[in-house]
What does this fold into?
Amino acid sequence: MHESLTTDILILGGGGAALCAALHAKRRGGPALTVTVAVKGLLAKSGCTRMVQGGYNAVLNPRDSLQRHFADTIKGGAFLNDQELAWMLVSRAPRMIAEMETRYGCFFDRNPDGTIHQKAFGGQSYDRTIHRGDLTGIEIMERLRDAVLGQDIRVLEDHRAVRLLRDRSGQRVCGALLLDMRRGTFTVARARAVLLATGGGPTMYKISSPSREKSMDGIAMAYEAGAVLMDMEMVQFHPSGIVVEGSELHGAVIEEGVRGAGGRLYNARGERFMERYDQARLERSMRDVVTRACYLEIMEGRGTPAGGVWLDASHLGKEFVEREFPGMVERTRAAGSDLATGRVEVSPAAHFIMGGVRIDERCRTSVEGLYAAGEDASGVQGGNRLGGNGVAESTVFGALAGDVLAEDVVGRAPAASEEGEVRRAIEEVTAPLGRDTGEDAYALLDRLRAMMWEKAGVVREAHALEEAIAELQDLEARAERVKVHGRPQANLEWMLWLNLRSLVVTSALVARSALARTESRASHYRADYPVQDDRSWLRHVEIRRGANGGLGGDGPVVATRPVRITRLRPDQVPAGAEWPGVPVTHDE
Amino acid sequence: MSGERIFRVARGGAGETARYQEYRVPEGDRVTVLDGLLHIHRYLDRTLAFRYNCRAMMCGTCGLRVNGTERLACSTRLSAVPGRTVIVEPLRHLPLIQDLMVDFEPFFDAWRQVKPAFVPARAPRESGQAPDESVRVPDEPARIAPDAPERQVIDRHRECISSAICYSACEVVSVSPEFLGPAAMTRALCLITDSRGGAREERLDLLNGERGCWRCHTHTTCSELCPKGLDPTAAIEQVKRILVRRSLLKLVGVYRPAASESSRT
It folds into this structure.
């Protein structure tokens, strides 16, 4: 029925967090430690670190400071960040950049004096985004992959995890059930510790930017395994997904650096509408502010016929745009427009989820044996992630998790999973292959995406969220009646169905958490509670699986918990664009 | 110009002779080959197997042959493909898994041969064991001006997305499967040019060897087809020049192994 393997550390995922974890675990644990990476595609080619464009935030310039990066991150996150995790992010990022340059051979762009160049990104009080052109993720992932190839790390490509396995007590994660996507067979991977590094990827929205295989699998599996999730209502919509109707390219992001460099946004009337939303920062405002502005322009009838607004960088000069943003120019030309010489139609696109599995400062989740890093985890980015803080989180916390795992597995006995759990999971996962008739996975996915966009998207309110929750219960039931055609081998429709299942579960967690937060904060905007309420809501919304499972009735259990405000209080920050006593500078 | 195209798609699994199946695909003016395959999968045939991830020219996963020429499905607009019929076949030189889905292993096997992992010229310091020290403080990133000669070389030849398009298109790989291929040697050039890195001599020995650069016949197909506009042929030619210079210097007994090409004066 299935094959088996045993490893000390099982890492699920193949992006920045997974590979940094594997490299660190191996370096810390030495030759005796076995590390296995299972990835839902090809190594370093799937995942969202690959898709990083603009770059990586880290403090390198003595005129910048960790305190400023920290304050920008907390302000950007609207004080919902776990401040200890956020401090770890900013304080470790510079060393991680050094590590990537000196140990893995990443070669970031330089200033004329040979030091690393840093560019302007939204919501930052200093130009601190390190990059390689405008396709930074390629440089990072290719080099991390090369480093992994040089190590004794077992890599299982085209292996997606479908279930976290628990021991007989049900309290400890002791491995995962993997599906070999090529052969259509199952492997039980038994491990002393499991790291979730699959990335989030909120692709349950009509327009979304992440790599197409992303489907929130890690968060969905953690939920099923009973882990506490946090801030699931905090979904980031990038302001500028490219509008290409009828093409899969639809939603792919035009990077924030274009606005950082002076790119402007116009509505269909030709108005530079950011003047009305953030007069000080204009297009350089935080992502949530720019997104909401674009969304409102479109919803209030000032958008283009295809439902977008215009991003225009042509005044910066063709030569400048081609030199600074070659990847973006290539992308727009592939879609029949041209960023270097004209305007480009863009729309908000679901981009990232700040929420996820709750972790502590050692990447431990609330379930023994289970760890999380990167987009699967929560707390670091609060209510809104600054551009350039995502790959920093993946690599910093991936590296940390690798070190912690290598230490934690010492002396920890492997546990056997409950055999019945494996059998039930395989039956459940293979069920659609045997059906003569059934629901259509594509149709359900379309329905899910339209519904989430409309009812749990950029602007939310109680009634729509309640409708979304009810509809998700229906979708959950219908998803279990899907028919998948063909054989188990190399079956894309089967993968699509597994993606749908993860997305339905996590959508319900998003909608329920969004309903619970009766205020507006950062990426979460409630039309019926439009004001940020610091008196009541400097709290996380936590959600976990109920005793009966499922999404209906007493399914998910919602609670709240105060944010750890250990370093910077909201009353210490003025409302303006500038940090007290620190002028905003933009180095050339 | 909206119309209809005929996709003739190679079907079949490992060890089978490909059979070609035809599908009618609507053509919008901004639609790509990938969009065509997704249309087939959704509306015409759920059993078609192919690879794609990022759909935005970054992951290098959706390589295939369009009318006999290697392309990324995501960046090939149908309007740019001449003729009514679009023949879609898997990449060559890689074992077939199913239909258009291949196993990249031979490509990465060649890649592994050139020791693609960066080896620091001077090993970073190792430090304590506590997790807080985990991300150790190695040496600072090197100061290298953007107009430094090594930077010029490396900038021109990196940004490879390991799509295996050049590997599939290479006629030398066709006749000599042990040939390292264009991508791996381009990676090797970047490594031996990087003043920060070591292991230069062993990489040069490998490039000089049986599987290395001398087998390249300068067909330039790789450079014509690279989806990122890189020039592997030029990279291989540069490797050859470095090797010639090395042998000449060795011959006259003045060769001094350096950490990297660019640290030589």
In short: The beta strands of chain B are 3-11, 19-27, 63-66, 69-72, 85-89, 96-98, 101-102. Chain B touches chain A through 74 residues (CB under 8 Å). The first strand of chain B starts at residue 3 and ends at 11.
